[in-house]
Design goal:
By secondary structure, this protein is an alpha+beta fold. The protein has 59 helices and 26 strands. It has a 7-stranded mixed β-sheet with strand order 6-7-21-8-17-11-12, sandwiched between helices. The protein is extended.
Length: 1883
């Protein structure tokens, strides 16, 4: 395939970039051979001309199609190169938040720097048992692959975790070990898996520290071997450590810390037990403050120390040893603070009384003088003498630090050794899985000896990795028979030789260390001289003579030679060691004790059956001087070689951890750092090796399914392999681009992308052709439709016109005739209608007028009455006001007139005398004037009375006065001579004028006052009207508000009750679930206990099943089988002798479980009792109301008791007569006494039958009466509506309550509550002063008056209701009197009955009661049911008491009957003996003998089975242990074993044998447990015994004699009730057993369905052709287990049908079947959804369609079985919503809103996970954008749901066993002979 075919326009390529490493670009022009550059357009839209290398002419890397971006496996990419790998990892990490990716056999793990919810137990369970390629990449998948290959291949495994510091190596290794501990469990009770996990916090505390790159960096390498037994359960572990960074103890760089344990101790120094360590803050010690970063954000060192101490305790290191370890660590800190000063240039000194040195000596138990001496001196030995030399300060300080490092290293090794001892077990190891957590390739600015060793180890591991990858590729090619060609890959053996070969770096370093005057400089010169010219991988820096450069496989690293020799020697002053060995501190002496010789890898296995590989150097030399001669490099090389030997002997699995950035930011990706690590960890080398061969591989079926579109019909042959070969030869011309294997097709790099391009082009062309054809077809169809429509319209139009013409002509001809008759008919009809209408109108009008007239008259009469009273009221009010006003006006006017009269009299007196003196002639004129003044006064009075005409009168009077004045002037003219006399008269006139004006003003004032008063009155009236309207409106609003509030309160109460009911049901289900989980745990402990007994039992020793539950131990007794007891004792003795502590633990655990179970049971009972409290309360009130009939009932009871005493007395006399004369002939058959006894017996039996029939009749009547009374009692009591009256405080509240009560009082049932209403009225009245206070201006006075009137009306209504209530009370008193009379009559009747014989007495009383009750019932039915409620209650009480007395009599009669049977049997035996002694042989032959011990009704079976006690084992064996469910289910009635067991139990109860009852129940329960343990995996067996156990439980309830369980029984079934024993406690035990069987059934069903679900629901294409197959990587092809067969949806449906039919055949209760089906569908939905959430390849649109179709098939199955209401469909709702989520649009905000409203059953984590995993199958689909996912997360932020990602597949819904009575009569059951139960006898 030429480059021109791939590098065309729109092709996308990768070009190098400085910042992003690689940048994407798109070609804007086709590339042609010979072009020197490419025309590109970047993603930001800018154009770029990319120059090609003129020498190589290499084109840029092509970019993979979008459909392949984000693949789980990098090897699935078509183009395998560095930019493709980097981009795929970035997309998965940033966009999809996926941190794991496969790269062939390597798992690439990117540190998210964030806690992710993907490591829970549910995730572990989801990956357990799955093939590695089936699920999304995960560390659990690698662990599962290693575990599975260990079990399958019988070969040890290794998981190699590597990476930079901070990449997450330790966490990955920890999760891998957690996976092994979870899925495998331990083979003993020592909790080895917990100990293995507990070693992590210890090793992190002493071996991890904070660095600049990681807060919890492992500063050592470790290899943990987890051992397994032959059943692949964890039995132990062993840890090997490598190259502890001891220098960190004494030195830390900036922003780094020492080992965590030091800071944990300093943070906990305040604790009392640490006071003696003399520690303080970490800032006070040199060894913990050099990095100046003593605190890690988010880490509490105090809590971490608690975790460390708990881990120590779990691993067996007791408190004393722990304190010793902490003492040594504290001593190291104090040693670091010892200050050494210069004494002179060649010596040093420690100041006296150094506190820290004193503390060090006290902690380690050495003398202060010795340590002071040897910290500043050293001993030198020569051949002849030994002398002491002083040390300079620098050397003394280095010696002090060396001692601290050496002590810490010894302590580290001691802890590792003891951890290994705690993890070692005595069980033989079968295989192991090793987890290697080792440092990755490191390069810093300054690289020293530690980095050299680390990179050396990585070189060895990379070599092993390359060889393993090469080997796997070769095996794959050879397996598929592909021609193998040698692939050139990087071999780092030269670099390894440079380091470890003879005269290599390490060899020269050891040689220099042995030199007396060796130095770092001389060693560097030796390196230059030896390797600089001979090895290309070794270089010398240009600017340094004390450094060297080595070209490693990852990068060039420059090492500084300074410190290499000192670190390699790791020398310690021997005298200091001797001082420490002489310590009084035992632990310190133990640290420096000579260790045993380490075993070599090839040494024989020890007692544990395993190969122990020691990490320690060979320390078998005797003297301590030789102990420190072995260099660190030599030790590391040896241990590394041992590690490589171990790895080569195992199957490796690789985990490469990548650090995405250096700033520890969550989900931040730095391409430069990522590429650097990918190159260093070998991922790109793996890609290169894969790309060099045939990286893309397809099976023939996958290739055919994917590229079927590129084939023609003639190319498709029956042989798929041949078809693929032919098609490939046509599509790809170059034969070297692909190879055909046995099962797969191998492609070169880029060929899959080319095929995808061809497929996309073909699909695009097909789409265009389809669109063209469809559009043509639509256009032609539209044209033909329009043409046909036009022709049709024309045809119909013309036909219509012709028909219209013909029709018109016919109509014209017939119109005249029709009109003639029609008009005649219409006229006649109209006349008749008018006539009828007139009559009807007249009738209606007259009736209406009469009604209107009547209504008018009625209204007029009522209006007249109303007007009369209203007008009278108004007239009286107006009269009173007018009277008051008139009296006031009269007083004022009279006063004014009196004053005027007085003035007039005074003036008149003066004027008359004067005139008399002056001129007597003027007297007449004055009199005239006086008369005129009087007239004027009268006129003024008239004007005052008539206010309206005052003004006109005033004008007239003024004119008249003017005239008079004119005339007076004339008179004055006439009397000029008398002017002096008239002067006084004129003055008087002026005064009169003034008075007149004053009067006018007063008149005007009065008019204004009247007008103002009128206006104010009108205004007041209008205001009162407005206030009245507003009050009415407020009243209506208040009424409406009260109604709304009452409705709201009702709704709120209903919602509250519903919520509380729902919460109670939820709590009840939770309690049931907890209780049933405890039962499961108890059963598991029982099974483990049995396994332990079987394990420790001796051969040939017989023992019994130890399957008694804790519940059973409470309610059952010990079995009386001696053989079983002896075997059980022997087994228990043996168990106690071998492992007493384990037995005690189990017993303690069982006791705790029993107590917890009992408490949970009590809680469950309390929860269930809450639902019956209301009913119990009603029953209590019902019982309290029995006062009236107690005398009658007590009298009746006394009479019955006296009757019983008489019967007992008669029976005693009968006994005496029988026993007193036993030898006499009176007891012989035929004698009088014998006949009397037989007659009494027969009469008792007949009487018993009659009484039973009467009791049945009476009980039926009682049931009907009880139902009627209960129905009436359920009515709402009126008292609840007035309970809160006394709580009202405010006037408004009282007013609202009063208005509402007024409306309510109209109903009859509230008539009896007058007292409460009166109280309300009194409280309402009491609030009147407060109301008046609110209206200080008197504005509400009329309102108050109106309310008082309303109150009076209401009081009138209440009085009316009181009268009706009194009448009802009188009627009730009359009824009570009648009841008393009836009671007296009954007493008389009872007295008469007492005189009757006993037989007639009971019969007469019962007959009379039944007759009386029947008559009363008939009367009550005919009468008012409400009024007769009390009578019904009284009757019901009487009937209930009567029934109780009858039951007591029935029991007494049964007892008497039993005694009579016994006596009759004895009499028969006595009679037979006497007849045998008195008769002759001839009489025996001639006279037939009639035995009397034969029961009278023997043929009437009682539904019981009798068996002997010694046959109990045989019964249990034949009926339970050896019974085959299939034969019983097919041929016999369902539940037959349960019925047989219950009939046997009935007989044991009948004979009153409690021991037999206990042993039968105990044997039954134990046998069922035994058969379930033996055949617990057989669904048919478990289902059979679940059905029979439930039926047995229902029989115990149905025949218990308890009334709630007897309501559905027949009379015959009630006779079969248990009479002597209460088996309530046993019912609980059997219920617990049924729960355990149900859980076993669910487990068995889950084991059957589990392998089918994923294949049928997800993988199988139910709708063919919808799903597309994408290219898969290496992991999909190398699954751990071969395909075991494909399951389809039909497989699941067939299995569900099998489950359902089996349960139906076994007679399982329908409700129980519904619960089982619900659990089945939950398992299907949960497993399917969990796999969908963990499989990226399943999250596509087409897969959503497949899932929805499969779910619809399951729903159809539910409809067919009639199980749609069992809740099974709701369990599939999360799966349905997930499928819908895959199919809906996912672009806009509206789509996000729709998704949030649709996916209510999914959690936020599940929704986001599905969106992240959504993968298009074709290029026409689009990926979900990151912004859309962020929008979804924002919208779902407030949703309160669980953050759990996966559903709990182990969850079992709480099971309930609803009571299901059986209609089968026990006496009709026949026992088939096939059951071998012939020893049972029907009774």
């Amino acid at each position: 395939m030429a480059a021109s075919e791939l590098y065309t326009k729109s092709a996308r390529v990768w070009i190098p970039d400085v910042e992003e490493v690689w940048k994407s670009a798109e070609l804007t022009k086709d590339y042609k051979n010979g072009d020197a550059s490419l025309q590109l357009m970047l993603e930001d839209g800018s154009n770029l001309e990319h120059k090609l290398d003129p020498k190589t002419k290499n084109l840029p890397y092509l970019r993979n199609p979008d459909i392949l971006v984000g693949e789980n496996d990098l090897t699935a990419l078509s183009y395998l190169h560095e930019p493709a790998v980097l981009h795929n990892l970035k997309v998965r990490f940033i966009d999809s938040k996926l941190i794991y990716t496969y790269c062939g056999i390597v798992l690439v793990a990117i540190n998210p720097y964030e806690t992710l919810p993907i490591y829970g137990t549910d995730i572990i369970n989801a990956y357990s048992g799955q093939n590695m390629g089936d699920m999304d990449p995960h560390i659990f998948a690698v662990a599962e692959e290693a575990y599975k290959q260990m079990a399958r291949d019988e070969r040890n495994q290794s998981i190699i975790v590597s990476g930079e510091s901070g990449a997450g190596k330790t966490v990955s290794a920890k999760y891998a070990m957690r996976y092994f501990a979870t899925v495998s469990g331990s083979a003993s009770e020592a909790n080895v898996e917990e100990k293995v996990l507990a070693s992590n916090p210890i090793m992190e505390a002493i071996g991890n520290a904070k660095t600049t790159r990681n807060d919890n960096s492992s500063r050592f390498g470790k290899y943990i071997e987890i051992g397994f037994d032959n059943r692949y359960r964890i039995i132990g572990a062993n840890m090997r450590t490598y190259l502890l960074e001891k220098s960190r103890v004494v030195f830390q760089a900036d922003e780094e810390r020492n080992y965590h344990i030091f800071y944990q101790l300093c943070a906990s120094s305040h604790l009392p037990e640490f006071k003696k360590l003399k520690l303080s803050n970490a800032n006070d010690f040199v060894y913990t403050w050099q990095g100046r970063s003593p605190v890690i954000e988010g880490v509490d060192d105090t809590k971490e120390l608690c975790s460390t101490r708990r881990a120590f305790s779990l691993l067996g290191i007791n408190e004393s040893y722990q304190m010793g370890l902490f003492q040594v660590l504290a001593a190291i800190l104090h040693l670091g603070n010892v200050e050494i000063k210069d004494k002179d240039s060649d010596s040093s000194i420690i100041p006296s009384n150094n506190n820290h040195l004193t503390a060090f000596c006290e902690l380690v138990g050495v003398t202060y003088e010795d340590m002071t001496q040897w910290l500043c001196h050293r001993k030198l030995k020569t051949a002849t003498e030994t002398y002491v030399k002083t040390l300079p300060r620098l050397q003394a300080t280095n010696a002090r630090d060396a001692l601290a490092k050496h002590i810490y290293a010894k302590l580290f090794n001691w802890i590792v050794e003891h951890v290994n001892k705690a993890l070692i077990t005595n069980i033989k190891q079968h295989s192991f899985i090793g987890v290697l957590d080792i440092y990755g390739f490191e390069t810093f600015e300054i690289n020293s000896f530690e980095q050299f060793c680390i990179n050396y180890a990585n070189e060895k591991l990379q070599q092993q990795f390359n060889m393993h990858v090469f080997k796997l590729e070769q095996e794959e090619y050879m397996k598929e028979q592909i021609p193998w060609t040698l692939i050139d890959f990087y071999d780092n053996q030269p670099c390894i030789n440079l380091i470890e070969a003879k005269m290599g770096v390490l060899d020269l370093l050891d040689e220099e260390c042995r030199m007396p005057k060796g130095s770092d400089d001389s060693w560097a010169q030796k390196l230059y001289n030896t390797h600089l010219k001979t090895c290309s991988l070794f270089e010398k820096p240009r600017m340094s003579n004390r450094a060297f450069i080595i070209q490693h496989f990852a990068d060039k690293v420059e090492y500084q030679c300074e410190g290499f020799l000192a670190k390699n020697k790791d020398t310690v002053n021997e005298e200091q060691i001797k001082v420490l060995k002489a310590s009084k501190f035992d632990l310190l002496v133990e640290l420096f004790k000579d260790e045993e010789k380490a075993t070599s890898p090839m040494a024989p296995a020890g007692a544990g059956g395993r190969t122990r590989l020691s990490i320690k150097p060979d320390k078998s030399r005797d003297t301590s001087s030789k102990e420190h001669k072995k260099t660190v490099g030599c030790q590391f090389r040896n241990s590394l070689q041992m590690l490589m030997d171990t790895l080569n002997a195992t199957t490796p699995h690789y985990v490469r951890c990548i650090k995405p950035n250096d700033f520890k930011q969550a989900f931040s990706f730095d391409p430069k750092r990522a590429v650097q690590q990918l190159r260093a960890c070998g991922v790109l080398e793996t890609i290169r090796i894969s790309a060099a061969g045939f990286p893309s591989r397809w099976t023939y079926q996958e290739f055919f399914s994917r590229y079927r579109v590129l084939m023609k019909q003639k190319d498709v042959l029956p042989d798929k392999k041949l078809t693929c070969r032919n098609v490939l030869e046509k599509l790809v011309q170059d034969q070297d681009k692909y190879q055909f294997g046995k099962t797969k097709i191998f492609f070169r790099a880029g060929q899959v992308a080319y095929l995808e391009k061809l497929r996309a082009d073909k699909l695009r062309a097909a789409c265009i052709r389809i669109q063209k054809t469809i559009r043509c077809w639509l256009a032609r169809k539209k044209y033909l439709r329009m043409r046909s429509a036009a022709i049709t319209i024309q045809r119909f139009t013309r036909g219509y016109q012709a028909r219209c013409l013909a029709k018109f002509m016919r109509r014209t001809q017939a119109a005249t005739l029709i009109q003639k008759y029609q008009r005649m008919c219409v006229a006649r009809k109209r006349y008749r209608q008018k006539q009828a209408a007139a009559l009807a109108i007249q009738t209606i009008l007259r009736a209406y007028m009469a009604r209107q007239k009547y209504q008018a008259l009625l209204r007029e009469s009522k209006v007249v009455i109303i007007q009369k009273h209203a007008r009278g009221l108004l007239a009286r009010r107006w009269y009173k006001r007018c009277l008051h006003s008139i009296v006031y006006l009269q007083c004022c006017i009279r006063r004014m007139r009196a004053r005027r009269e007085l003035k007039k009299l005074k003036i008149e007196a003066r004027s008359v005398e004067h005139f008399k003196k002056l001129n007597k002639g003027m007297e007449n004129k004055i009199m005239q004037l006086q008369r005129r003044i009087d007239e004027q006064t009268k006129e003024n009075r008239t004007v005052n009375e008539k206010l309206v005409g005052l003004e006109s009168s005033y004008t007239t009077e003024s004119e008249r006065l003017r005239g008079e004045l004119g005339r007076l002037r004339g008179v004055e003219d006439d009397a000029k001579n008398k002017g002096n006399q008239l002067t006084s008269l004129l003055e008087e006139l002026e005064k009169l004028k003034k008075e007149l004006s004053t009067t006018q003003q007063e008149k005007k004032t009065i008019e204004d006052w009247a007008q103002t008063y009128r206006t104010e009155m009108e205004k007041m009236v209008s205001e009162l009207k407005d206030q009245n309207g507003s009050l009415k409106k407020e009243k209506d609003d208040l009424n409406r508000l009260i109604q709304e509030q009452s409705q709201q309160m009702t709704e709120k109460m209903a919602r509250t009750i519903a919520a509380e009911t729902q919460q109670l049901e939820k709590d009840l289900n939770e309690e049931r679930s907890r209780y049933q989980n405890l039962l499961t745990e108890h059963r598991r402990l029982e099974e483990k206990h049995d396994d332990l007994k079987e394990h420790i039992s001796k051969p040939g020793h017989r023992r019994t099943d130890s399957t008694h539950s804790s519940n059973e131990s409470e309610y059952t007794y010990n079995s009386e089988f001696a053989e079983s007891e002896e075997g059980s004792r022997a087994a228990e003795d043996l168990t106690r002798g071998m492992d007493t502590s384990l037995t005690l633990k189990l017993q303690k655990r069982l006791t705790e479980l029993e107590q917890e179970k009992q408490s949970l049971r009590n809680e469950l009972e309390n929860k269930e009792e809450q639902f019956q409290r209301a009913r119990a309360r009603d029953e209590t009130e019902f019982k309290k109301a029995r006062g009236a009939e107690l005398e009658y009932e007590s009298l009746k009871r006394q009479e019955l008791e006296s009757e019983n005493k008489k019967l007992k007395h008669n029976l005693a006399e009968m006994r005496k007569s029988l026993l007193g004369d036993a030898a006499a002939s009176s007891g012989a058959p035929g004698s009088p006494a014998y006949k009397v006894l037989l007659d009494q017996l027969n009469s008792s039996c007949e009487e018993l039958e009659v009484r039973k029939e009467e009791v049945l009749i009476l009980r039926s009547q009682l049931v009907s009466q009880k139902e009627a009374v209960q129905h009436k009692e359920t009515m709402t009591d009126v008292a609840v509506h007035v309970e809160d009256v006394s709580k009202l405080k405010d006037a408004d509240e009282l007013k609202q309550a009063y208005i509402g009560l007024k409306d309510t009082n109209r109903s009859r049932r509230f008539a009896c509550k007058r007292l409460e209403v009166r109280g309300l009225l009194s409280r309402f009245r009491s609030t009147a002063p407060d109301v008046q206070k609110l209206n200080e201006d008197g504005e509400l006075w009329l309102v108050n008056q109106g309310l008082q009137e309303t109150i009076r009306l209401l009081e009138h209504q209440l009085q009316t209701q009181r009268r009706s209530y009194d009448s009802e009370v009188e009627s009730l008193r009359g009824e009570l009197q009648n009841v008393k009379e009836e009671n007296n009559r009954q007493q008389q009747l009872l007295a008469q009955n007492l005189q009757l014989p006993p037989e007639a007495r009971i019969e007469a009383s019962l007959q009379h009661e039944i007759t009386r009750l029947t008559n009363e019932n008939l009367e009550l039915v005919a009468g008012d049911p409400t009024a007769s409620r009390e009578a019904r209650v009284l009757i019901l009480r009487r009937m209930v008491d009567l029934m109780e007395q009858l039951e007591k009599q029935d029991r007494n009669i049964r007892k008497l009957k039993k005694q009579l049977k016994v006596y009759s049997k004895r009499i028969g035996e006595m009679g037979a003996g006497q007849a045998e002694g008195q008769t002759s042989p001839g009489q025996m032959v001639d006279e037939p003998i009639h035995p009397v011990n034969i029961p009278r009704r023997e043929k009437d079976f009682q539904g019981m089975l009798e068996y002997k006690k010694e046959d109990e084992l045989k019964l249990v064996k034949n009926l339970i242990i050896e019974l085959k469910p299939r034969g019983v289910a097919v041929n016999l009635i369902p539940g037959l074993p349960a019925y047989i067991l219950f009939m046997c139990l009935r007989h044991a109860d009948y004979v009153n044998d409690d021991q037999k009852v206990r042993t039968l129940l105990t044997s039954t329960i134990n046998s069922i447990k035994k058969i379930l343990k033996k055949r617990g995996d057989d669904f048919e067996t478990v289902s059979f015994w679940l059905a029979n156990t439930c039926r047995f439980l229902h029989c115990l309830k149905q025949y218990s004699g308890e009334e709630p369980f007897m309501t559905h029984n027949t009379s015959r079934q009630n006779e079969h009730c248990l009479s002597n024993f209460d088996l309530t406690e046993y019912r609980q035990v059997i219920s617990d057993l049924a729960i355990q069987i149900y859980q076993q059934l669910i487990k068995c069903m889950e084991n059957i369905l589990q392998p089918m679900i994923v294949s049928a629901m997800l993988e199988h294409e139910t709708i063919q052709g919808v799903s597309g197959v994408k290219p898969t990587g290496l992991r999909k092809r190398t699954s751990s287990i071969a395909d075991e067969g494909t399951y389809t949806l039909d497989s699941i449906l067939r299995q569900l049908n099998a489950f359902h039919s089996t349960m139906c055949q076994h007679g399982t209760d329908p409700e129980l079947i519904k619960q089982v089906v619900k659990q089945q569908f939950y398992i299907i939905g949960a497993v399917t959804l969990n796999n969908l959430l963990l499989r990226k390849d399943m999250c596509s649109w087409s897969k959503g369609m497949q899932i929805r179709y499969n779910v619809s098939q399951l729903e159809e199955w539910l409809r067919d079985k009639g199980l749609m209401v069992c809740g099974a469909k709701e369990t599939l709702e999360p799966l349905i919503q997930a499928a819908q989520l895959l199919q809906v649009k996912k672009k806009t905000d509206e789509d996000a809103e729709a998704i949030c409203s649709m996916c209510l059953a999914l959690t936020t984590a599940q929704i986001v996970k599905v969106l992240n995993l959504y993968t298009p199958v074709n290029e026409f689909e689009e990926r979900v954008s990151v912004a859309f996912i962020r929008t979804i997360q924002t919208r779902l932020r407030d949703r309160c749901v669980s953050p759990q990602l996966l559903m709990d597949t182990k969850m079992i819904y709480p099971i309930t066993f609803p009571f299901s009575p059986s209609s089968l009569a026990l006496e009709t059951i026949q026992i088939p002979g096939s059951l071998n139960l012939g020893f049972l006898t029907r009774v």
